[in-house]
Amino acid sequence: MSFSTNTINLAYQNIEERELPENTAQHVLKDEVIELSNPTSKHKYPKQLRRIAVWDDENKQTIELITNNLKWAAQTIADLYKARWEIEVFFRDIKQLLHIKTFIGTSKNAVMIQIWTALITILIIKAMKNQAKYGWHLSNLVAFIRLNIFVKIELQKWLDQPFEDPPSKILNPKQGVLF
Questions:
Q1: Sequence-ordered list of residues with C-beta below 8 angstroms from that of 4, at least 6 positions apart, any chain
Q2: DSSP letter at 59?
Q3: Is the distance from CB of 36 to CB of 68 less than 8 angstroms?
Q4: Given the DSSP bridges, would you call strands 12-17 and 28-36 parallel, antiparallel or unpaired?
Q5: Which of 7, 38, 39, 156 has the fewest Cβ atoms within 10 angstroms?
Q6: Tens of pLDDT, residues 58-81
Q7: 60: left (phi over 0), alpha (psi -120 to 50) or beta
Q8: Angle between helices 138-147 and 108-131 (to 10 degrees)
Q9: Residues facing 14 on adjacent strands
Q10: Sequence-separated contacts (24+) of 49-56 with Cβ below 8 Å
Q11: CA distance linking residue 160 with residue 169, whole number of Å
């Protein structure tokens, strides 16, 4: 199944408007079968397509989806698109926040280790963000962790109240002082 979301410049003609189920398609605004009308586009893809318009509550906008899947329910296609988009955002976060531009090792094993390490790292950071009482933005949390990576802090307290001064001396140390 393929998706496309930019229908602004897409020339098409409506073949059939599908009826929407009353209770199951909460955010689906339109479900129609279309054909491309531009001769070049129609030559490249002569088959029928499906155009689904969905309301996105989070961003307060209408999203138009074009797919070649004519069998599945419109809500299922919309849900799949939303899940796919969340995966795209997840990998964008990995690339942008962890600054992974190249791989250190190039063997299959080295690349897999680096990918798994990045996945584990971003999941741990997202879990920390979700547990924190402070309203962190993911990029700010990553930057603050980089700055404080070698600072001895009580992690949960720092996540909840990052701008409070740490105590000057730890009371009742569990390990003896060497110097």
A1: 10, 65, 66, 67
A2: T
A3: no
A4: antiparallel
A5: 39
A6: 888 999 999 999 999 998 999 999
A7: left
A8: 110
A9: 34
A10: 49/12, 50/77, 51/7, 51/12, 52/28, 52/77, 52/78, 53/28, 53/29, 54/27, 54/28, 54/29, 54/78, 54/81, 55/27, 55/29, 56/27
A11: 20
Distance of CA 129 to the CA centre of its chain: 15
48 closest CA partner among 37, 66, 30, 33? 33
The CA R_g of the chain, rounded to the nearest whole Å, is: 25
Q: Which amino acid is at 163?
A: F
C-alpha triplet 134, 83, 45: angle, nearest 5°:
145
Cα–Cα–Cα angle for 16, 20, 24, rounded to 5 degrees: 150
Paired tokens of 158? 């720092």
Q: For residue 51, how many C-alpha atoms fall within 13 Å in the half-sphere facing its CB?
A: 19
Q: Which two three-digit tokens encode residue 50?
A: 């499906």
Q: Is the dihedral of CA 93, 7, 49, 65 positive or negative?
A: positive
Rounded to two decimals, the pTM is: 0.57
Nearest to 156 by CA among 128, 175, 130, 137: 128
Q: Please, are residues 23 and 73 in contact by the beta-carbon 8 Å criterion?
A: no
- Do 78 and 28 contact (CB within 8 A), yes or no? yes
